[in-house]
Design brief:
single chain; 1214 residues; alpha+beta; seven-stranded mixed β-sheet; two-stranded antiparallel sheet; 41 helices; 23 strands; coiled coil; Ion_trans_dom; transmembrane; transmembrane helix
């Protein structure tokens, strides 16, 4: 009955036929569309169904139609659900169809999002911990965990979590504006920047795709990406037990750092000065930090090493002085200050551009945004000049920045149009009039950056101020002051250190140390952390600060002990040790030097290795020292003598002081009686057994410590050096920031006169009530921009971010198009192969028909002959023989008559080939059976292979008499770094397992053991050649078992006549290609340049290096010639086409090792690029030349087949 009732409602029936596997996959689409038709008048319900089924494609085509207009309030709840459930495609769809994030995201809705997060993950655990702290009335009740199940999360809790992840230097937005974000506020209160809030929400939940979407929608892309990277790194460090999730977060953090670098690189290429301002601009939405400070706190080495950051640090370091100011001029002006106006040049003297924002040129520059990303027109605004010297558009206060991003026109000085509309111009003085104004020292807070050119003339007095205010000048003053301090300190210890008598120099040193102590107090107070504990941790986190504390405390202790007779000698010792530590502190100045700085980093890393090594060494010292002391001097009761025997002798014996006279009692003055020795406090004589046993122990001890442990330490240092060497430059550039920041913050005066600066700072702090303005740490390395200036800079960054995203999408699209093109080529090749096979089958059928007809004719002829013989009585009298059974069960295996087995007479000849050929997926024709891999003798030796006929080459064909020759060249057996261990010399059980058919990461740089052909077989822990038998086992001349990957650069150009026209071959009527060919030294054959891909080496780098070494004689060039050649090769190798990737039929191949190559064609279409090179044979090439691409030219290995494909690609003669 229900079926009948259902049929009556035909509009609700949907018929779906499952007739294939593909249609079965789309059954959910049919069901969803049926439900949508059932609710065709309820669009809201339809959208909820599509959201529940997560089918944004159906919603886009069937629900969001052109005749339907959605209101903001209709999509608000669905947008909330999509964000909460991490449905990225729906969020995109809602944004494209009218949802405005500014109107959607209220503070109350944001709190709900954080309150309904999944109850698992780092964010949930940290919020729960924060709620327990907030609800606990005191720390005494913290052990009793209060219930937080019914407590809602506030934005202050979220800000606390973000601050704990970012560090105390980050000031949460919710803390700075508590009225807007309070829990019981107005439900309709909107967030200041909704895109930023949703971006942070997704980052904290590790929703990478959704976070990327909101990052693209938001502003301040560099800062946002860096903050996201910092948050993810911090959350990854919190996950101690979940390694997989921690690695995933770290990977996402690296991706955001790449985004920040990409946008920064785009900005740097557009405007270098404005990019530097972008890095130090105070970010109101991001904790009042700067991009540079965020990158430093997150240890973003690549970001800090970028040219923009390094150029900014150079500008900060030099202050307002010109960057090319020499050290000689600086030292001269330091010692002779009146020469400052004459010798020191400033940026204003270099006649730089008057403005920072306005680009050069007389034409307008238009920055367009991708359609659809901005929906509102830009208002007409006027241009004004800021106090910082920037010409910007006046964006009215209160206007949304997004309203001004549809089209930005940055004008030249002669333009008066904005958006092609006339605008009122603000009249400025002429250039000559501006030059007449004097530049005055900026009225900025101490530590605030001022590195931009004002474009005004600098007065003489201002020149002195700017010179002494530069961090490099402060640094040099402090260095000279420190050297003078060390000299005075050394004089006191060496010549004027007397009991209870203080000289003038002693008083100077005491005041000097006091000023150093005051400076340390100032540094502690002005650290960027806000709490006392945070300031202490930040201060102690700098190792050089610990040096300073130890120095000051040691000096004070020694100074006090100096006035007591019993401790005077101890005071002298402490003074000496204190001076030694002060000398070590001098190493700090070398951090600024590009050559010495990286060496200090290596020393610091090696000291860590040394500390671990000392723990191991102490064990051996104690073991030998205690044993030798007990044997030589049994029952010794004098503690000092025992400790000296254990540690003193054992330690110095490592360095060669063996004490053999004492140990063997050979001419050593000692007392045989123990009681007499104690009474006279003299040395005991060693025991009789100890005189011969301890030297034996000493020999073993020296063998272990001198030979084993010290060489182990050297190896550890060598490993650390190689490991650090790769990133030393980045590490130095990163740590350079701390030194520049320190001297940017430090008062210009050097100790001991720095005391006057400290008195001034203390007086200012008291008079100003300890307001924030008196704390230099609040504004160090930071620039606060005016409103119009800030908005214009944000707008410029957004435009460059859009350009970067468009470029990224374009590159990704090109890669996709290239893959589609390659796939289409492969499909076409497969079609050609199928057609070729059909033609062959047709020919075989025709031959079979002809053969059948011939056999029938023969049978008829035979029957006629037999009949004729019978009629003439000439038939045989015996009965005809019985025919043998030829069924498949009894039929012997036919012998393949394709080839004869090679004998000793033809060992040097190539085996006969099989005519059947096929093509790889790359379209490269290859032979079914390798030929050159079976030739004898083996290259560069007289070893002949075991003969293998064509029909016995495949491993699947039994070959019981197969007895291959075992050969591996001596140069390979010597164990060079590029070779594997010799498995052939080991038994099967002793052979180690190499990581065949995968990337072998056990070796440095990782060895690629996968094959382009596919998975190859491994037998007895040895790989088998996927192309079959070769007549030889081992590795021959190759270093690796399995595939040995090579790279062959095919550099081609068109062959031209003397008039510059392309030559045409008379037979094929096609243009003739030429390629760079080298003549191999080992066999004299011409070949394509190439070589092996080393572990961890980039393929493109191998191609460029091998071509330069073999065809251009790179190894014989000077260093400068190599650099020039590398730049030219970069232009040539910029565009390449992969023409072959697979097995190479090479005479060096064996059963267990073979060559697989990747050939890339670099074509010089016009012939201009190769004119810059002179061909010169080098490395293992005997000669080099341009050679015609011709199928009749004999070449090495599979190079002929590679060139055939190159010719086909260019439609050239072959």
């Amino acid at each position: 009955m229900w079926a009948v009732e259902s049929i009556k409602k035909k509009q609700l029936l949907s018929i779906f036929e499952i007739d294939s596997r593909e249609s079965a996959k789309n059954i959910d689409v049919a069901m969803l569309r049926a439900l949508l038709r059932a609710n065709k008048d309820d669009y809201q319900h339809q959208l909820k169904l599509a959201l529940a089924w997560n089918r944004s494609d159906i919603a886009e085509t069937d629900i969001f139609t052109a005749d339907r207009r959605w209101k903001q309030e209709e999509l608000a709840d669905l947008m909330y659900s999509a964000i909460l459930e991490d449905k990225v495609n729906f969020v995109k769809l809602f944004l494209e169809n009218g949802v405005s994030l500014k109107d959607f995201l209220t503070v109350r809705r944001l709190q709900r999002l954080y309150s309904e997060i999944p109850q698992s993950g780092v964010l949930f655990d940290m919020l729960q911990k924060r709620l327990r702290e907030r609800l606990s009335p005191s720390k005494t009740n913290m052990s009793r965990k209060p219930s937080t199940a019914k407590v809602s999360v506030t934005m202050d809790d979220v800000g606390h979590v973000i601050q704990s992840l970012m560090g105390e230097i980050y000031v949460p937005l919710y803390e700075r504006n508590p009225e807007r974000y309070k829990p019981d506020g107005d439900p309709k209160t909107l967030c200041e920047d909704p895109t930023r809030e949703l971006f942070l929400y997704c980052v904290l939940l590790n929703r990478q795709e959704m976070a990327r979407l909101f990052w693209e929608e938001g502003k301040e892309g560099v800062a946002a990406a860096l903050v996201a990277s910092n948050l993810l790194k911090s959350m990854a460090s919190e996950l101690e037990n979940d390694t997989e999730l921690s690695e995933e977060m770290s990977e996402h953090a690296d991706k955001f750092e790449e985004l920040a670098l990409g946008v920064l690189n785009e900005c740097w290429g557009e405007d270098e000065l404005r990019t530097q301002l972008l890095l130090v601009r105070e970010l109101y939405l991001w904790g009042e930090l700067t991009c540079l400070r965020i990158a430093i706190s997150g240890n973003h080495l690549n970001f800090i090493a970028h040219s923009a950051c390094q150029a900014l640090l150079n500008n900060i370091w030099m202050g307002k002085m010109a960057l090319d100011t020499s050290i000689i001029r600086l030292f001269t002006c330091i010692f002779i200050p009146p020469l400052v106006p004459a010798l020191i040049y400033f940026r204003e003297d270099q006649k730089e551009e008057e403005t920072l924002i306005e680009p050069l040129g007389t034409e307008e520059r238009h920055y367009s945004i991708a359609p659809g990303s901005i929906r509102r027109p830009r208002p007409v605004v006027a241009r004004t000049k800021t106090s910082a010297g920037m010409i910007v558009d006046n964006i009215p206060e209160g206007e949304d920045l997004n309203k001004s991003m549809e089209m930005v026109v940055v004008h030249s000085s002669g333009s008066g149009l904005i958006n092609n509309q006339p605008t009122p111009q603000v009249q400025f003085k002429e250039k000559d009039e501006e030059d007449e104004e004097d530049y005055e020292a900026p009225d900025t807070e101490e530590g605030e950056l001022d590195f931009r050119s004002s474009g005004k003339r600098i007065s003489a007095l201002t020149r002195f101020y700017l010179f002494y205010d530069a961090p490099i000048t402060t640094f040099m003053h402090n260095v000279l002051s420190y050297i003078l301090f060390l000299c005075l300190y050394s004089v006191v210890i060496l010549t004027q250190f007397e009991f209870n008598v203080l000289s003038v120099i002693d008083y100077i040193l005491a005041v000097w140390i006091f000023t150093l102590f005051c400076e340390e107090i100032r540094q502690l107070i002005t650290t960027e952390a806000r709490s006392v504990s945070g300031k202490l941790l930040e201060y102690v986190g700098n190792y050089w600060n610990l040096f300073d504390l130890v120095n000051i405390i040691t000096f004070i202790t020694a100074f006090a002990l100096r006035f007591f007779p019993g401790t005077f000698s101890a005071a002298r010792v402490l003074y000496s040790l204190n001076l030694m530590i002060f000398f070590f502190r001098l190493l700090h100045i070398f951090y600024i030097n590009k050559e010495m700085g990286p060496k200090l980093i290596m020393i610091a890393r090696m000291l860590k290795d040394l500390i671990f090594f000392i723990f191991i060494l102490i064990i051996f010292i104690l073991a030998y020292g205690v044993a030798s002391q007990a044997i030589l001097y049994p029952n010794e009761t004098r503690v000092g003598t025992v400790l000296q025997g254990i540690f003193h002798k054992s330690y110095f014996q490592i360095y060669g002081e063996l004490f053999l006279e004492e140990i063997m009692n050979d001419g050593f003055t000692c007392e045989a009686d123990y009681a007499t020795a104690i009474a006279n406090n003299t040395q005991r004589c060693p025991s009789e057994i100890g005189t011969w046993l301890v030297p034996v122990l000493l020999g073993l001890y020296m063998l272990v410590t001198n030979v084993l442990l010290l060489n182990l330490l050297i190896a550890m240092f060598g490993y650390t050096f190689e490991k650090v060497q790769e990133n030393t430059d980045k590490i130095w550039k990163f740590q350079r920031y701390d030194l520049i920041k320190e001297y940017s913050d430090r008062p210009p005066l050097a100790p001991p006169v720095i005391l006057f600066s400290h008195i001034f700072l203390l007086f200012r702090a008291i008079t100003m009530g300890c307001c924030k303005k008196c704390r230099p740490g609040d504004s160090v390395m930071k620039v606060k921009l005016e409103t119009a200036e800030r908005k214009q800079l944000i707008l410029w960054e957004y435009l460059n971010s859009e350009n970067y995203l468009q470029q990224t999408r374009r590159e990704k699209s090109q890669e996709t198009d290239e893959r589609v093109h390659n796939t289409q080529e492969k499909v076409d090749e497969l079609k050609d192969l199928a057609n070729e096979q059909d033609e062959r089958l047709t020919r075989l059928e025709e031959q079979m028909i002809k053969s059948t007809m011939s056999l029938e004719s023969i049978i008829q002829s035979q029957a006629w002959i037999i009949k004729s013989l019978q009629q003439n009585n000439l038939s045989a009298r015996e009965a005809p023989p019985e025919l043998e059974d030829t069924s498949a069960e009894k039929a012997p295996h036919p012998k393949a008559p394709l080839t004869r087995e090679p004998t000793s007479m033809n060992l040097g000849k190539r085996p006969k080939t099989v005519k059947g050929r096929r093509r790889t997926l790359d379209g490269q024709p290859i032979q079914e059976i390798h030929q050159k891999a079976r030739t004898s003798p083996y290259p560069m030796c007289d070893v002949n292979r075991f003969p293998v006929p064509d029909d016995k080459v495949p491993w699947e064909v039994p070959f019981s008499s197969y007895n291959p020759v075992n050969y591996t060249a001596d140069c390979v057996l010597a164990g060079p770094p590029w070779a594997d261990v010799d498995l052939m010399s080991m038994s099967i059980e002793d052979r180690p397992f190499l990581m065949f058919n995968q990337l072998d990461e056990k070796f440095k740089g990782a060895v690629e053991r996968t094959s382009f052909i596919g998975t190859y077989k491994v037998k007895d822990k040895l790989p088998l050649n996927p192309k079959g038998r070769t007549g030889m086992v081992g590795r021959g001349l190759m270093g690796r078992f399995g595939p040995n990957h090579a790279a062959d650069p095919v550099v081609t150009r068109w062959k031209r006549d003397r008039f510059g026209n392309k030559e045409v071959h008379p037979n094929t009527c096609r243009n003739v290609l030429e390629f760079v060919a080298i003549q191999r030294r080992d066999n004299g054959l011409w070949a394509i340049p190439g070589g092996m891909v080393e572990p961890g080496e980039n393929l493109s780098m191998t191609l460029k290096n091998e071509f330069g070494e073999e065809a251009l004689g790179k190894l014989d060039k000077t260093e400068q010639e190599r650099m020039d050649m590398s730049k030219k090769l970069d232009k040539l190798f910029r565009q390449g086409k992969e023409v072959f990737k697979g097995y190479s039929d090479d005479p060096r191949n064996t059963d267990n090792a073979w060559i697989e190559t990747t050939a890339i064609n670099y074509h010089d279409e016009e012939g201009y690029l190769m004119q810059n090179f002179t061909l010169q044979a080098g490395d293992d090439a005997g000669a080099v030349r341009w050679q015609d691409v011709d199928g009749n030219s004999p070449l090495f290995a599979s190079h002929q087949a590679i060139l055939k494909h190159v010719a086909g690609f260019h439609n050239a003669h072959f």
